[in-house]
Design goal:
Largest sheet: 5 strands, mixed
Radius of gyration: 45 Å
Distance between the termini: 133 Å
Helix content: 10-25%
Low-confidence stretches: 1-48
Length: 414
């Protein structure tokens, strides 16, 4: 069919011309090239060429570091841990050291390396440098250093306790705490001192002043047991910015229960050991002008094999019928700071033991009795005096240990 062949030839020539024109346009760039991209297979309209895709890494998030204490802090409590913490990144290293000596304080990382906490207590009145190096998400390091100082010496508060650690005392011995600075935050201090008896016996503190507190139970300590006194005052605020400076655990041994029952009217004393009568001695006690103190007294640690009593210390002067000048005595065991002792009676009083009260308030015994007390009774043992002219005439609570003259309900309520 010649007609058909002739009809196809012009159409094929048109296609070749179009393709040739496009090729020229692509080679020359310009509008033709941009138009070609819109239809070439595999390229969607508007898609960027491979050379336009970004190749740079995004910056790492900044590390946010928080340290405590802050730069330049003063009077920092040495019991409070030093900390460093980041929200992004990690802590690469942390060095806490005394600025002057270079001595370092250990610490521990936690929270996946995002938190550091010091592991040891700091020293009082000391300057510190805290250097923390952080690392961001790309491994970049940055170091931040701060300085601070701890509580100064003027605010360092101490305490001492009676009886001393590992002492052996009697069942009536209150525990006594002396504070170097006034305590206004008494509840915090009491909480920091825990007393445990072998039987779980509970007691209470009684504050006689802002610097003196005692502790006893409602009844005597169990004989031949021990008390554990766990003291954790380091870092405790006594009040007014005074900070406790130590922790310690003391053990107080309780010996036999030894009680002297002293009857001023009968002029005799009975001594019981673990509730069994052990000794009986004739006595001479306070006369009408200087009656013996009634109630409860506790032996102190003051024992003098030879002592000199001076009448002027109780207000007596020459010419007074009761004046005795300076009297040498033996086997003096103190009951009160005001001058009450158990001792060997003066030679002139020996014949009157068990018959007449001649002393200035002391308990006078014969040589056997005074030496037995001196050698066998100990601090914390109890003397209970009855039969005096005035049963209400007890010693002041802090004139020795007059704590047992206070009912426990009142004692515990301060």
């Amino acid at each position: 069919m010649p007609e058909l062949e002739s009809a196809r030839k012009p159409r094929r020539g048109w296609k070749i011309a179009v393709v040739a024109a496009v090729a020229v346009a692509i080679g020359m760039g310009g509008v033709g090239a941009a138009t070609a991209n819109s239809w070439v297979a595999g390229n969607e309209a508007g898609a960027p060429t491979p050379s336009a895709v970004p190749t740079t890494t995004p910056p790492a998030a900044p590390v946010e570091l928080t340290v405590a204490p802050g730069q330049g802090a003063e009077g920092y409590n040495p019991a409070v841990p030093v900390t460093a913490q980041v929200k992004t990144g990690t802590i690469y290293s942390a060095i806490l050291k005394e600025t002057e000596t270079g001595a370092t304080t250990d610490g521990e990382l936690s929270d996946g390396g995002r938190k550091w906490v010091s592991g040891s207590a700091l020293a009082f009145d000391t300057n510190y440098t805290f250097s923390v190096t952080t690392m961001d998400g790309h491994g970049n390091l940055d170091t931040n250093a701060t300085t601070f100082s701890t509580v100064p010496a003027a605010n360092e508060a101490d305490m001492w306790m009676y009886p001393a650690n590992n002492s052996t005392v009697g069942v009536a011995q209150p525990l006594e705490f002396h504070f170097s600075e006034p305590v206004t935050n008494k509840a915090a201090v009491e909480k920091a001192i825990r007393i445990t008896s072998a039987t779980g016996q509970k007691g209470a503190f009684h504050w006689y002043s802002d610097t003196l507190a005692r502790y006893r139970a409602a009844t005597y300590w169990p004989a031949n047991t021990a008390l554990k006194v766990d003291i954790k005052l380091f870092g405790v605020d006594y009040g007014n910015g005074q900070i406790g400076n130590f922790n310690k655990t003391n053990t107080i041994n309780i010996g036999d229960k030894v009680v002297m029952e002293a009857d001023a009217s009968a002029k005799i004393v009975h001594i019981y050991v673990n509730d069994h009568l052990a000794k009986t001695f004739l006595a001479s006690m306070g006369d009408e002008r200087f009656p013996s103190a009634s109630g409860f007294l506790v032996l102190t640690a003051d024992k003098q094999r030879h002592a000199t009593f001076d009448a002027s210390t109780i207000g007596l002067k020459p010419g007074d019928p009761a004046y005795y000048g300076k009297l040498k005595v033996e086997y003096a065991t103190r009951l009160a700071n005001s001058g009450i002792f158990i001792h060997l009676a003066a030679p002139v009083a020996i014949p009157y033991l068990g018959k007449v009260n001649l002393s200035h308030g002391c308990i006078g015994l014969d040589r056997e009795g005074a030496s037995w007390v001196f050698n066998n009774m100990k601090p914390g043992d109890l003397v209970h005096t009855t039969g005096t002219l005035d049963p209400t005439n007890t010693i002041a609570p802090t004139d020795g240990f007059g704590d047992w003259n206070i009912p426990f309900a009142h004692y515990a309520n301060k």
